């Protein structure tokens, strides 16, 4: 099955699975604030029209949904793109990894380059690492109908109070005396504490990408450190070939903090527990 067809099938199946669901509350919630005065991650949830330089067609983005709160869908003319998002402490991380229609790949520089978000009234402002605005998200209209995509993806997403609380739940701080790693600390290649003939590894790059292998299966995605030093990651699909090795995909997906002490990298969970360790290659 092609990547485009897989995307359409996934969207349709997901929408069918939630038809008739009840118990949801309106997405029109009071403005929330995260610790340190940053906007809460749930402030990003919504169906937004995108205003950005270089856009030649009307574009919308749906961030979050009641059945997949951490998914996003970008609409523009006959192109639909899908991916994932994470946010914490005013920091935004996204990845577009599938598409359908007339587009031949990700066409969202205004989203891919955004690393921070703020709110202005009912609008959301996305900015890049230099503080320059990449896009302004406004509540205005809806994408045109698409016969291949369920209408749920053209509407304001409605999350339960529990889903919003989960999105906005802050991570537990690191144990006393333990400091979060900086970007410079974690860059480079890391390997397991014990040796394997399959040579598993984790590579963390300055451009915001990470990749790795357990010795047989490759995995990768994007990463960022939030303003509070905590870790945000998104990842793509991974094959499931069995072999002797060490999987770094799981700790990268589950870790809330990275800590580097000397040549050792530790992955800390959101309750302050050590999930895994690695050593610099």
UniProtKB/TrEMBL annotation:
Keyword line: Signal
Record Gene3D superfamilies: 2.40.128.270
Signal peptide coordinates: 1-20
InterPro entries: HslJ-like_sf
Superkingdom assignment: Bacteria
Protein name: META domain-containing protein
Organism: Ruania alkalisoli
Lineage: Bacteria, Bacillati, Actinomycetota, Actinomycetes, Micrococcales
């Amino acid at each position: 099955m092609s990547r485009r067809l897989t995307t359409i099938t996934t969207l349709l199946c997901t929408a069918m699975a939630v038809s008739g669901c009840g118990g949801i509350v309106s997405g029109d919630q009071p403005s929330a604030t995260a610790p340190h005065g940053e906007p809460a991650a749930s402030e990003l949830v919504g169906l937004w029209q995108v205003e950005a330089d270089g856009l030649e067609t009307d574009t919308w983005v749906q961030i979050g949904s009641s059945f997949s709160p951490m998914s996003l869908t970008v609409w523009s003319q006959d192109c639909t793109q899908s991916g994932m998002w994470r946010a914490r402490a005013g920091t935004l991380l996204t990845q577009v990894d599938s598409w359908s229609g007339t587009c031949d790949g990700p066409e969202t520089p205004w989203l891919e380059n955004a690393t921070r978000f703020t709110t202005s009234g009912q609008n959301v402002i996305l900015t890049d690492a230099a503080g320059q605005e990449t896009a302004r998200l406004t509540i205005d209209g809806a994408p045109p109908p698409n016969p291949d995509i369920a209408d749920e993806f053209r509407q304001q997403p409605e999350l339960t109070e529990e889903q919003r609380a989960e999105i906005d739940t802050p991570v537990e701080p690191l144990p006393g005396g333990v400091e979060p790693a900086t970007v410079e600390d974690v860059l480079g290649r890391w390997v397991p504490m014990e040796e394997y003939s399959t040579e598993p590894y984790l590579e963390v790059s300055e451009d915001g990408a990470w990749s790795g292998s357990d010795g047989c299966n490759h995995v990768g995605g994007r990463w960022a450190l939030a303003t509070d030093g905590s870790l945000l990651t998104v990842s793509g699909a991974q094959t499931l070939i069995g072999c002797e090795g060490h999987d770094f995909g799981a700790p990268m997906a589950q870790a809330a903090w990275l800590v580097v002490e000397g040549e050792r990298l530790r992955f800390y969970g959101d309750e302050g527990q050590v999930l895994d360790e690695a050593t610099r290659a």
